[in-house]
Amino acid sequence: MGMASLGRLLLLAALWGGSFLFMRIVAPVLGAAPTALGRVALGAAGLLGLIALLRLRLSFHGKLRATLLLGVINSGLPFLLFALAARVLPAGYSAILNASTPLMGVLIGAALFGERIGANKLAGVLIGLGGVAVLTRTGPATDPAALWGVAACLAATACYGLAGFLTKRWIADRGGLDSRVVALGSQLGAVLLLLPFMLWQAAAQPLSWPEAGPRVWAALLALGLLCTALAYVLYFRLIADVGPLKALTVTFLIPPFGMFWSWLALGETVSGLQALGGALIALALWLVLRPEAPAARAAAPDEDWSI
């Protein structure tokens, strides 16, 4: 990996790690649905501006419906679930749990898409589950409400894992599509999903927008424009430059950045047992993302999981 790609990788990890901090700031004030909707709406606006700036042709080549559906699974649902978790979980917790995305990809691939699970991946899944178990038995995650937050994070990572396979089946295997167009379409699909949730929340309880200060609005802008629009551009550029497997190494770097930002801005601390849970998940990721032997790779199709 060249220095330019390494720089993009570190910047992407910093942005995605920061997303959990920003959600932790915004969601308790505005609520989960407005946080998620604001994120995808700003992300779509940023991507639309980029496409206009680059004068790219905005054509979905008959894949608009598939792209919108991918947005529901890959952005709308997980962003809503992580925003719900941000109301009860520290940002560092959510960042660590997000790292289980490739593990969910392995399980979903085996259960629904006939993927082969080798010894390394099986060991990785088991160790990763052990790491999650350690996290859920330490610190604030022992609170019943926080356990629902952990469940929301894991459901979000399952959405990411499923979306990777659906992207291959609905987009790549049907001739492909410009990655920036896919990213824009996915954000638009997420907007369509989240808008009813936003309206439902507004009807159920008055929105506390007037009480939100500049800090909350700045965090929401950063969440949408930096952690979503810019981050997707960086991620797809990395995939083009170094391939999906190396691009997925960003998963290792998101938890340290997430914990660092939350410590710096919110004063969150990490206990020894929490660090152990994160270390087990990191080991699991290494086993899952470790290249297999040539014969095993030939037997299994390419894999790609979104984050």
Provide a descriptive summary of the structure in words:
It is built from 13 helices and no strands. The protein is mainly alpha-helical. The two termini are 20 Å apart. This is DMT family transporter. It is found in: Membrane. Residues 10-136, 147-289 form the EamA domain.
Count of distinct strands: 0
The helical percent reads: over 70%
Strand and helix order:
HHHHHHHHHHHHH
**What is the number of independent domains?**
1
Q: Helix tally? A: 13
Shape: globular
Query: What is the CA-CA span between the terminal residues?
Result: 20 Å
Strand content: under 5%
The average pLDDT value, as a whole number, equals: 86
Rg from C-alpha positions? 19 Å
How would you characterize the largest beta sheet? none
| Secondary-structure class | mainly alpha
Low-confidence stretches: 296-307
Summarize this entry quickly.
By secondary structure, this protein is mainly α. It is built from 13 helices and no strands.
